Each structure stands twice: as C-alpha cells, then as structure tokens.
Amino acid sequence: MNSLNIDFRDSCLRVLKVESGKFAGTSLVSDFSLTDRASAIKTLSAEIDKLGKRNARVNIILTQEMIQQTIQQIPRTDTDSLSMILRRKISKDLSGSEFSFGFKEIAEHRKARTGTSSILSEYVENRDLSEYIALLKECGIKPGLITSGLEGNLQLFNKLRPETQGNEAVIDIGAGHIEIIIISNGRLIDYEKLPLLIDFSNNPDETNTAEDQASKIKIYKIVDVLYNSINTYIKEDDQGGLSRIWICGIGSTLENISESISSSFGMSTDLLIDSDMQTDGSAFSAISGVSHISTEEGITNFIPATMLKARQNLIKQVVMASLLAVYIAVLIGTYKVTITTEKDLRYFLSNNKPSITAAEALPGDQNIYSTGQGTMVKIVSGSPALYGIFSDIANLIPSEVQLQKIEFMKNGNTTTLSLEAKIKHKDESYQKAIMTRYLNSIESSARLKNISIPTIVTSGDSSADSFITVKSGYEVVK
C-alpha cells in the first residue's frame, strides 16, 4: 500500500513516504508552525513534492495541544452504548461544541472500580481541526485518517511486540509532553501524559552551554519528569510491575538517552524503531505505526463524521461510474471507448444490449437472492478486491475476445465471478489459440482463483460463421 504520512507534533513537521508497503523516504523540518500560514503551506508543499507522493493515501497525526484526553470509569456495557455515553459526557464538557473522538479501554486499570471499565477518550473540536484540513486542502491533499501519536505508537509496538514480557512501557518524549503507555500482550494497561518543556533544536541553549552539556541537562530533566511515574509502575507488583522500557519521539534522538534512563531506573531500555527505518528512526515511530494501519476498525479517526459520510457517498457514485465505464470498454471489444454524454450511453446500450448482473444471497436463506444496481454497489463496496478485478478484465483480455456476460454472486463471505466470452475467427487454429490466451490471461490475475473447468461450445454452420463460446468461473481472492 502507498501512503504519505504527516506528523505535526513537537513544533516540527515529519513526513514519511511508503511505497508498496516499504518506507521510501522521510523528512523532518524543525520550527514548523501554522502561525505564518503562507510559510506553512509553502513548507508542507515543498516537503510533499520532494518525496513525490501527493496522490497516495494521506495519514495525519495531530499536535498534542489539539487533542484533549480523559480517563473515565464507565459501567461495563456494549461498544455502541459506551460510545453514546462518552459522546454525551464530552459534549457537556465542550458546551455543545462539535467534536470528533475515539476511545480505548484500559484493561486491568489500577484505578478501575468493580463493575466499571476505565476508558481513555481522545477528542478534538472540529473548529480547531478545520485549520489543518484547510491547510492540507491548499496543499492539494485529502486526509484518509487523522489520529493521535498514541494510536501510532500502539500500532507500531503491537506490530513489533505482539507478545511482551509482562508489562512494558513505551515512552514518547516530545517537545511539550511525555506520553507513558503501558502495554501487555497487545492490551493497553495504563496511560499518562506529563508536561515537558524542552527545546530539542540542535543549537546550544541560551547560556551558551556546550552542546554535549546541554544534552545532559535535557536528559536530566526528562528523567526527573519520569521519576515518580516510572517508579510507581515498577513497584506495582500486583499489576505485574514493569519489565522493560521503550523510548521514541523527538527526544529519543538525544545521545546516550537510552543508557541514562536504563541506569536511572535499573531497567532494560531500548529505542522503539520500526525494523525498516534508518538513522533517527525512533523520531518517526508514531508516524511509521500509523502507516501500518490497514483497517479503521477500532482506530481513532478525528475526521468529522459529516465529511466521512459525504466521502462515502462520493465513493459509491465513483464506483458505479467506474464500473459502468469498464463494462462499456470491455463489452464493446475495444479498450479506448469514451462515453461522453448520457445520449451516447443510451445509444450504446440499445445497440449492444450487454448482460451485466449481480446477486447476493439473503441472510437466513441461501436460495433467495437480491439483485439490481443496489446489490452491485453493495457487493463491490464490501469487496475491495473487485476494484482491481475490473482493471484486470480490461487489461488482460485479448482484443479479439468479446465478453457477453459478467455475473457476480455473493454468498456469505464468498464472492464469485462468472464470465461468458465469444471468440470468432475464420481460422479455427487461431481461434483456439486466442481462447487459450484468454483463459491464461484471466487466470494470471492474483485477484481471481479458478473454481471450475471452463465450458467451451463451438457454434456456426461453416468455418466463416464459426465462433467459440467460453464460460468460466472464478472466486474473488480477498
């Protein structure tokens, strides 16, 4: 998957490009701010153009200052009811202001009362969020995900450490805050955010102290801020204590910081770095974690619900338009046909009469099916692999082959595709060669798996009128 990942935290700009699932470039700009809007747009656009991935999926991490957080004790209930309860509480705190939010349960939280769950909520006021969305729009990009550094760090840690040695701490050291995340075997055990005011620029501080001495002072301040919290976690034997520390964020790039934290708390301390990252990769830990997100289920996404709904409606319209365009290109037997007006489209349909159908088994009775355009949209929307299949059909099928029928059938979690093609040529040997090439081309698609032996019927009274009809069936590979 290709993505462009942007992190606005710590008064700097971090950009990470991913191509085909691999890291393909990073950029870090210090002293980045939206105060000078024109300068911010120019800088962001330049960094995006430098990495050259403006049309990829865009994931955003917001600044810590924009995201508000609360940990609340909520009576145990289902996810939908929990979401409704939290929405009401947050709306009351914000005096009715519109907001976007996400939440996570803190498992076995030390402060949880009997019969309750400790819930960590993160929320952003939409009026604050609009500033970043407008900035991105002026740079020519639309975000697919807007989330927090916490989400990114959780994603990366659980990818690298799906099984932990008891409770392990991830400490993200930023310019304004330190986030402490306690994790055990994929579960969030505790969370704390502490204030930290440190300038992580490469210049010596105001007193002209030597740079190495300035670094030691910064590390001392970091350890001092962490001292009480980390020692509390270490001593909590009833909660499993703490077995290991991982550090990341802009402050983790200070020289010897791992060794200093390790000696201060008597515990193994390492940098949290994605295995594919290079030098100073721990500064990009949260954003690299975000780049690994492949589903939005359970993921905090601050994009306003109204924007998401409008985008989903647009996607449905684009899907139907794209499907129709591909059908026309394939069924007419040429791959460069453009239907420019509704009048042209009606003329084409009335003259070619293509057969395009879709059906889905209804719940409770696998012998009753729904059909129609709505069913086609539903099947395609629920099967992402179908987007690529239409491209494969248009590009893989030889030009001598004319598709007569395209049928989709969805039954439970399985989607099948049936194709009926017509091959006509006066040379019988060439006709069979085209048929073989056609079948091999379709089977070469990684998105389709052959599930039946093709049915081949030869028709026509003479060699001049002879044609082959080929019917084949495939299962859509998820």
Per CATH, the architecture of the largest domain is: 2-Layer Sandwich
The number of helical elements comes to: 12
Give me the secondary-structure category: alpha+beta
Specify the helix fraction band: 25-40%
Give average pLDDT, whole number.
80
Portion in beta strands: 25-35%
Number of strands: 20
The CATH class label of the largest domain is: Alpha Beta
- Please tell me how large the radius of gyration is: 28 Å
Shape: elongated
Q: Could you name the CATH topology of the largest domain? A: Nucleotidyltransferase, domain 5
Q: Sheet with the most strands? A: 7 strands, mixed
- The domain count comes to 2
Distance between the termini: 15 Å
Low-confidence stretches: 330-354, 365-369
Concise account of the structure shown:
By secondary structure, the chain is an alpha+beta fold. The protein has helices at residues 37-51, 79-93, 126-138, 149-160, 211-235, 257-265, 285-291, 305-331, 342-352, 373-382, 385-396, 428-443, and strands at 3-7, 13-19, 22-29, 57-61, 68-75, 99-106, 116-125, 143-147, 168-173, 177-184, 187-195, 244-248, 269-271, 355-362, 365-371, 401-411, 414-424, 448-450, 455-459, 467-476.
